[in-house]
Every structure is written in structure tokens, then in C-alpha cells.
Amino acid sequence: MTARNNPRFVALLSAVALLAITGGPLPAVLAQDSFVEARLQPVPLTEEVVGNLQPRMVTTLSSKVMGNVLEVLKREGDPVTAGETLVRIDAQDLGNDLAGARAVLSEAGAAGAEVEGHLATARLAREEAAAQASLAEATFNRIKELFDKKSVTKQEFDQAETALTQARSRVAQADSQIQVLQAKRAQVTAKAAQAQAGISKVSTIKALAEVKAPFDGRITGRRIEPGMLAAPGVPLLIVEDVGMIRFEAIVPERLLSFLPEGASVAVRVDAVAGTDFPGVVTEIVPGADPLSHTFLFKIALPADPRLRSGMYARGLVAKGEEQVLLVPRAAIESRGQLDGVRVQVDGRTVYRLVKTGRTHGDQVEILSGLRPGDRFAPAGAGR
After folding, report:
1. Where are the domains of the chain?
2. Largest CA distance in the chain
3. pLDDT tens, residue by residue, 9-18
4. Does residue 99 register a pLDDT over 80?
5. 3-state SS string over the chain?
6. Phi, psi at residue 201, to the nearest 5°?
7. What is the rounded distance in angstroms from the CA atom of residue 248 to the CA atom of residue 49?
8. pLDDT (tens digit, 9 = 90+) per residue, 302-354?
9. Among 17, 64, 79, 305, which is least packed, fewest CB within 10 Å?
10. SS (H, E, C) 82-123
């Protein structure tokens, strides 16, 4: 018989293995009050959903005018405030256009003043001509009466009639001159309005040469450098609203009934260990992915500087409660890669291997190795 088949050798080998696992002999007896009874306890029944952190608002800034970039005032990670200038674009040509439009406006203003002066003079001349025409008409009427009575000569009558005709002609000439000046004034006014519109347009375009932040946030992308050509539609900077980070989770359709809008969700971010962030479901994208049968849920999170867009996160969906066997974390004794607890069996202390599961605060779920009703040492008593 070989040593490997010898029963005494096998028993000795088993004893050595037990000592290796337990780290040494166990005390034979512990006080009765050193043990407590293992019991099932209610814990929340949850299921994890995964996703990433995303900003509520993100925008890619581009220029509305074409020109060389003079300055880029921010880099990735820099905070920005609404209305702050981020990029300056060369607007020298626009400045020349603005100066030209202002010169045209000034010229139109001078021409308008001149026309108004001529118009005032023409109106005075018209009033004088009208007065002379009234006098000539009155004189003609008086001469005509006398002529009808044969009291004046035909020559005097003709002279009075000619004077009336000339006076009326001067009034008509004055009216014609006034109409010409009014037409010229309309032209000058239109020219001034056109110049003012040009000034407004150029001023607006020149203002667009400075790209400003649309809201408070942080620069997460820089796509341009000084000296490069900016053009409409070409990305310059990416700005995110870091004050409104949300968790975008992929949720299976079987969990829809547990996550209505307004439901609370505990969110765990792997990069921020040890913290559960309270989230609230604010939006549910109504269309499901036809392949995976999942929905996109958007869950608002509180502002926290530790949260960054793109971080991996997990949400705990509350589905109710379940009964599990829990023991204090201090009751678990680790031996190498094995876990165990000290239990009382027939009045003796025995180290029993267990399989642990989830952690609930300072307690650990026992999946196997310990049953409800077993008595165990809650704090590794008698180690």
C-alpha cells in the first residue's frame, strides 16, 4: 500500500489543510453570550442599470464671419461665464466698411441740411408769389369793372391782365421748385437710411467677430488656434454646462414600471467611490431600441465638482424588498482568499467557510455556509 492510499496519511493531510485554512486551532468553548442567532432581515431589492454622465447642455461654438483668428482666450478645462469673450477674429475689413458707411451717412446728413435750407427759401418765395398773385387778381378785378363801364382804356385792362398772369406763373414756378426740392430731400433721406442700415449691419457683423460663451460652463474641446482661418460652420470650441450633469442610463423594458418620471434613483459613480448620488428621473426617451429592447432614461443629479461628463455610472432601481441573511462585517474572518465565521456547534466553536454577497452598510449578505437559526460570533469572538 502506497503512502498516498494510506488512511492515516490522508487523515494527517486533512488536519494540516484545516490548520492552514483556519490559521491555527480554534478555542474549544466560548461563552454563550458571545454568540447571536443568524436571522433573515429585509433589505431593498434593487437592480443595476448602467450608463454615462452627460451634461444637460453642450454646444459647439463656431464663427458667423470669416477671418483669421487673433486670440483664443480659453483652453480645455477652463471655466467660462455667460457673455464672456472666448475667441477674437480679425475684423479689419469690417472696420473699413464701417468707416465708409459712416462717411456716407455724414455726407447724406450734410446734403439733407442743404436741401432743407433751399426748401425753406422756396416756401418763402412761394408765399411771396402767392401774395403778389392775390394783389394782381384784386387789381385785375377792379380794372375789369372799370373797363366794363368804359372808365379805363383797353391798354390799362391788358396791363392788369398780364400782371395777373405773370403773378400766377410765379406761384406755379414756386410750387414746382418746392416739389423738386422735396423729391431731392426724399432721395437724401433714403441715402441716409441706407447708410444707417449699412452701419447697423457692419456693426452687427463686427460684434460677431468676438465669439462669446452662451452660458456658464466649462471648455471641453478646443478645435482652433490663433492664425487659423475661422469660417461659418467650422467648430471653434465646445462648451458644457457643468452645473447640470445628468446620468443617462440604458434601462431594460422590464424595469419601466419601477421608474416613472419623478422617481428617485441612487447613482453610484465608479470614479467617486463611497458616495451614492441622489438622482431623479426627469426624462424618458419614448422610443425603444428595437434590438436590445432598452430605453434611454435621463436622471438629474445634484451639482458636484467631482462629476465629469463621460464618467461611467450605475443606477440602483428599487424593486421592493427581499429577505436575506446578514451578519456584521466584523464577524467575517478572511483566511487567504477564503471567508468564514465562527459558529457554535454542540457547544464548541467551529470556523465555517461562507460565501459572501452584497454589502449593506456595516453588514454583509451571506449566500451560503450559514443558515437562519445558526449561532455565530458577531465580532470574531475568541480569535
Report:
1. 49-57+241-320, 62-86+209-235, 92-205
2. 180
3. 434 444 444 4
4. no
5. CCHHHCHHHHHHHHHHHHHHHHCCCCCCCCCHHHCEECCEEEEEEEEEEEEEEEECCEEEEEECCCEEEEEECCCCCCEECCCCEEEEECCHHHHHHHHHHHHHHHHHHHHHHHHHHHHHHHHHHHHHHHHHHHHHHHHHHHHHHHHHCCCCCHHHHHHHHHHHHHHHHHHHHHHHHHHHHHHHHHHHHHHHHHHHHHHHHHHHHHHCCEEECCCCEEEEEECCCCCCEECECCEEEEEECCCCEEEEEEEEHHHHHHCCCCCEEEEEECCCCCCEEEEEEEEECCCCCCCCCEEEEEEECCCCCCCCCCCEEEEEEEEEEEEEEEEEHHHCEEECCEEEEEEEECCEEEEEEEEEEEEECCEEEEEECCCCCCEECCCCCCC
6. -65, -45
7. 10
8. 988 888 888 999 999 988 888 999 999 999 999 888 999 999 988 888 999 99
9. 305
10. CCCEEEEECCHHHHHHHHHHHHHHHHHHHHHHHHHHHHHHHH
Query: Residue 264 pLDDT > 50, yes or no?
Result: yes
Cell of 359: 454589502
Q: Homologous superfamily of 49-57+241-320 in CATH?
A: Efflux pump adaptor protein, beta barrel domain (2.40.30.170)
Q: Give the mean pLDDT of 66-72.
A: 88
Reported pTM: 0.54
